[in-house]
Design a protein that fits this description.
By secondary structure, this protein is mainly β. The chain is built from one helix and nine strands.
Amino acid sequence: LWDWDLHRVGTGDAANGWKYFFRVRMLNDSSASVPVRSLARFYALRFVGGRIFPLTRLTEGEAAFLLEPGEENRFCWHVLCRHELQDAAGGLLLERAGPSDEGCAERFLHADLERRSPAFVEEDEVERMKLGY
């Protein structure tokens, strides 16, 4: 199960920019008894006017996670933009961490983070939304 949301924090403008808050929740709800390991995550931010900005991150070191069946991982972050964000989409690349064939197509998994338009929230609401992330 992969879920995420996107929020514009407060009112932005061309002089001060726009602040956005992202949250992602991942649950290994696999019926198999195999953990999954994060490899990378990626996002495409589409701004008003049509510009697209890609963000990618290899999930190594502190950004890495391993989810046993039934375990959950959550993370959140802010991004400041000079342009207003229209919407965003993304995904995660995962690897089955249990025994598998190196060439097996089922070794790698992906999770699509469907396109979202930012909902509006005030700064104080963001502090509450960070709880548990």
